[in-house]
Design goal:
- This protein is 66% helix and 0% strand.
- It has helices at residues 2-14, 34-60, 68-84, 103-106, 108-132, 134-137, 141-155.
- The longest helix is centred in the N-terminal third of the chain and has 27 residues, at 34-60.
């Protein structure tokens, strides 16, 4: 159980563009604006991605038992979420506790290309998992997880 929690926590840290909102004094307030809504949207999508990628990674690494149906469902969910993610990056949406960097919008073509590569890798994983099962697709999880870091390294402020 500790390995599962550690895996999910690690995936959450890897796949989160945005910090947690609320929950204590000094937490930055999220404005009731389209930019605030975009932040909340992308944060929610990132949290769901972290959970689902964590489950895929846990199975692929043998930390939890492999299950073809659960693996395929989670892979399909990741592909759907990956396609939804860019919608949350509207201009001027570095609000509240966001750790997104302005470089996202200064180099939007690169950011969009990385987001598309992430989506394409997630879609390929989902297709393989659905058509061929866990054993055939498990090696593709690393490419999906690597796509998180491809955006996070240049476009996310490092947390202290």
């Amino acid at each position: 159980m500790k390995k599962i929690v550690a895996t999910l926590l690690g995936a959450s840290l890897v796949c989160g563009f945005a910090g947690c909102g609320g929950g204590g004094s000094g937490a930055a307030e999220i404005p009731d604006t389209p930019e605030g809504a975009a932040y909340e949207y992308r944060h929610s999508v990132m949290e769901a991605l972290a959970f689902k990628v964590g489950r895929l990674r846990s199975m692929a690494m043998g930390e939890t038992p492999a299950n073809d149906a659960a693996f395929a469902k989670d892979a399909n969910d990741v592909a759907a979420l990956a396609g939804m993610l860019p919608e949350g990056f509207i201009p001027n949406s570095i609000v509240g506790p966001s750790i997104a960097l302005p470089e996202i919008w200064m180099n939007k073509a690169d950011f969009d290309a990385k987001a598309m590569a992430f989506h394409n890798n997630a879609q390929a994983l989902a297709t393989a998992a659905t058509a061929q099962g866990f054993e055939a697709a498990k090696g593709m999880v690393q490419a999906v997880g690597g796509g998180c870091g491809d955006c996070h390294r240049p476009y996310r402020r490092r947390q202290q």
